[in-house]
Design a protein that fits this description.
With about 300 residues, the protein is α/β, with parallel strands linked by helices. Helix content is about 40%, strand content about 20%. The chain has 9 helices and 14 strands. Helix 4 links the parallel strand 6 and strand 7.
Length: about 300
């Protein structure tokens, strides 16, 4: 990737991870267009300041885009904040903006991040109900329209569903189980697990996730895949956080539950196989927890 890379949602968690990966690859950062909901400054780990432009008012340089990394999206939790109608319309607007750029610019590669939420959690089938799961349904729509547009125009497309992420760049950590555990541990020296039944997840470091996506695109490989990472039961997750923080945390959890096991994680090993082929070593759950703790320490 030598031309202009445009990153939407650049000020978010995955946006920051993407910029760090692009920077680490040696790419000329003057050829990166960062876009966000409004003007924002993003500081990378090495101190480099990235000026993000509003997605609705991008700089002229965007017309030279060769690689479009589309991450801008209102996440699931925003439905209750902005209201259903505005939520749906805003995300469709973002989809429309990205589609218009695919149609207008000489783009070689396109990357977007979908979600495991595009599946109905109770059945595992692709979501069909926009009212009960607007985020997941719209992500499913995105996958379909972006892949079709890229195929029609001969653009390499990488659509990656992120099921569970960790790492240095986590924003609003309390919204996620692992982030909530880490923040509670750092602030209160305790972790409260609300579920007594078995809960298993798979996590991947967000920078490594984006690195796999970017390297696939660089290699000219179109893919539609789920994220991976090691499996971990949340009780084990809490115990490992405790171990890394000195073993003095209070961990509480209900003694039993009549609920069925919660095994909401991707079953495919395709992500790991791509990482192996690309020469990317994926972090263990212990390393991911360490990075997540480090990232939240920096924010305190």
């Amino acid at each position: 990737m030598k031309g202009v890379i445009t990153v939407t949602g650049a000020s978010g968690w995955l946006g920051k991870s993407t910029l760090e990966v692009v920077r680490a690859s040696g790419h000329d950062m003057s050829k990166v267009v960062a876009l966000a909901s409004s003007k924002k400054d993003i500081v990378l780990d090495d101190g480099l300041l990235i000026h993000a432009h509003p997605i609705t008012d991008p700089p002229d340089q965007i017309q030279e885009t060769e690689v479009l990394i589309h991450l801008a999206y209102l996440t699931r939790d925003k439905v209750g904040t902005v209201g259903y109608d505005r939520y749906v319309l805003t995300n469709l607007d973002l989809t429309s903006i990205a589609l218009s750029w695919l149609a207008s610019f000489q783009i070689n590669s396109f990357i977007t991040v979908s979600s495991g939420a595009r599946n109905d959690q109770s059945t595992g089938a692709p979501e069909t109900n926009i009212r009960s799961n607007p985020y997941g349904f719209l992500k499913r729509v995105d996958e379909l329209v972006f892949e079709e547009e890229c195929k029609r125009r001969g653009i390499t497309s990488v659509v990656a569903r992120l099921w569970g992420a960790t790492g240095l760049d986590m924003i609003d950590a309390e919204k996620y189980a692992i982030g909530n555990f880490v923040v509670s541990a750092l602030k209160n020296q305790k972790i409260e697990i609300s579920s007594g039944h078995k809960v298993v997840r798979r996590y991947v470091d967000s920078r490594e996730f984006m690195q796999v996506c970017i390297e696939l695109a660089k290699s000219g490989i179109s893919a539609n895949l789920d994220s991976g990472g090691p499996e971990v039961e949340i009780g084990q997750l809490a115990q490992e956080i405790n171990r890394q923080l000195g073993g003095r945390l209070v961990i509480s959890r209900p003694l039993d539950s009549n609920r069925d096991d919660d095994m909401y994680f991707p079953k495919s090993a395709e992500f790991e196989e791509f990482a192996r082929i690309l020469g990317i070593n994926l972090a263990s759950i212990e390393e991911q927890i360490s990075n997540t703790i480090d990232g939240q320490h920096r924010k305190m």
